[in-house]
Amino acid sequence: MRRLSLGTALLAFAALLAGCSSVPEGAADAQALVCPPGEEGCDEVLPIGPGGEVEVEMGNFFFNVTDGIAVTGSVEVTAVNISDAYHNIEILGAADGSFLGGADGEAFVGADGFETDTGTVELFPGEWLMVCNVPGHRAAGMELPLTVYASEEEAELAIEAGETDVDRDRENPNT
Ligand SMILES: [Cu+2]
Asked: Which mean pLDDT values do the consecutive 10-residue runs of the chain (175 residues) have?
């Protein structure tokens, strides 16, 4: 009986190792490069996780993460436009349809001057890049990394360590 239960435990452990479906480190990059969204068979590969909420300020010409945290899955982004010009957010390499690495991709949120828009994007864990895809805006400064954590636990550890994107304010070149 002892022997059997030990064997069962070992089998379960082996199955856990073999069948582990957690996304390996660097999966975000792999997803972006190996399986472009929109190509056959790629759109089913979506991150599984609790997701999260992030608030981003956008202006001429910068982004600033002001609140929230992104965990893998469906990430809701609220984009608050604090300028008088239209801006949007495209996440390069996003798994759900944003164009990979170009300026003619798909923004999932966009707002006219002093307006706010909310959208969701499916993201694997990793470091992503938010850009505004209005011509010239990215080059003028509208790009900012967005960290997507693998789990809520990992996100909480980052919060405790003060290492989140929030308030990672960079110099506004226009002030
Ligand atoms: Cu812009």
From this structure: 43 39 41 50 69 95 94 93 96 55 65 96 85 93 92 91 72 43
Contacts of 155 (CB under 8 A, 6+ apart): 52, 69, 70, 71, 149, 164
CATH of residue 102 = 2.60.40.420
What is the 69 CA–ligand 1 centroid distance (Å)? Answer: 22
Residue 166 lies in a domain: no
Going from the Cα of 137 to the center of ligand 1, the distance in angstroms, rounded, reads: 5
What domain range includes position 80? 52-160
Could you give the number of structural domains in the chain?
1
pTM: 0.68
Instruction: Give the distance (Å) from ligand 1 centre to CA of residue 7.
Output: 59
